[in-house]
Structures are given as C-alpha cells and as structure tokens.
Write the structure tokens for this entry.
Amino acid sequence: MKEKKNFNNPVWLALEETHKNYTIDYENAKFYLPEYCPFGSFNNSKNIQTAMDAYSKLTSDFFIVGKEAPNHSNNISLEGEYACKQMALTKNDFKIPKYTATIKKLTKEDEQKVYDLIMLVMPGTYREKSFNVGDYYGIFNNDQLVSVTGERIQGNDFIEVSGVVTHPDFTRKGFAKQLVAKTSEQILAKNKTPILHVLEINEGAIKLYEQLGFKSIDQIYWRHYTKAN
C-alpha cells in the first residue's frame, strides 16, 4: 500500500494532479468547480477565509476536507463536522465476493438515472456534473437503475470509491458490496489504490468494506459550510 501521507489530503492532491482541470485555485486553498464536487482543501495555511468567502458565492454549500479545521470569516457558518475513517485496499488484501448480479459500466446515457437515484437515496455531496469525474457502475432491474457506485476524488496514486447507493426497494441483495468490489477491481487495474471515506459511526458500512479487505489508514474530517444568515 502507498504510504498514508499520499492520501491524508486527498482533495488537495486530486486538484493538483488528476483532477487539476476541475480546479478553482485560490491563495492557500483549492476547490473543485462546484457543479462537479462541492469540495475544497488547504495545504500549509489555515487562513483561507478569503477563499471560502469567494467560493460561497458560487454554491449554496460546500465541504472542506482534511484533518484540521480552517479559519473562516463571519460570512460563513459551519453546519456540521463529520469524522470519517479513510480506508484503503491493496491487491493482496482484496477479497473478491461472488458476483450474483449483472454489473454494467455506465455511460453518458445513464447520467440522469444516476443523478435521480442518488438524489432519492443520499443527496448531499452529489452534483449535476459529478458523473463526469470518474467511472460509474450500476445494476439494473429491467430498465430501472437500482444500485450504483463510482469514482470521485482522484490523484496520481489513488481513486476514491463513492456514490454507494441502492434504491430502498432493492436493498439486502448484496448489490452495494458487489459494486464496491467491481469499482475497486477497476481501480486496481489502473495501478491505483482504492480509498473510501465512511462515517466513523456507520458500523454497518465499515463492516462491509472490511469484508472486502479495506483497512482503516487515517481519520479525515468533512466540514460542511454555508453562507451565514
């Protein structure tokens, strides 16, 4: 596995590396174009008030991803602070499950279906163009997309597995586990490390990822901000 230091500031690394074409670069901070991902990060200085104020004019809300909390102005409100396990998978640890469902690599024609499913089940960080930052895989019931998983934050050495969503009528069929495995397989085939971020209180999801061979390597905070009233 790559050393932990390669992943402990994933948004910053992604916007310097693989996803640099999606970057808004402020002094001391980098942000994704908000229609793709509402995420930002900083490197050496926590003094990013000006950057946060400027970015807040482009989107209703956003997240700063990293270990430390930034300083912010009175123009910004902290809505929530979420401690997440950062987990990673190596080829040697990967425990491939039995695939019982037909998994399809999704295309541009499926983009709206992905958006609709995620907005139904887990709205929050997905945006209208998030589909374009990585590959997505899905399971269909006839023409209905019922489960999806994809790639999000990407650096030279890693790709984040994200968008793990199943329609409420199709849970408990092992779809999420199979899709996370399939997405991870494809990331490993690109000679990159699959990582993911899961709330520390989400014991069920953590157990699922551990069954596939993911191991906790760090703690990352997702801090949610909006404009102050």
Observations:
- The helical segments are 10-16, 49-56, 111-121, 175-189, 203-212.
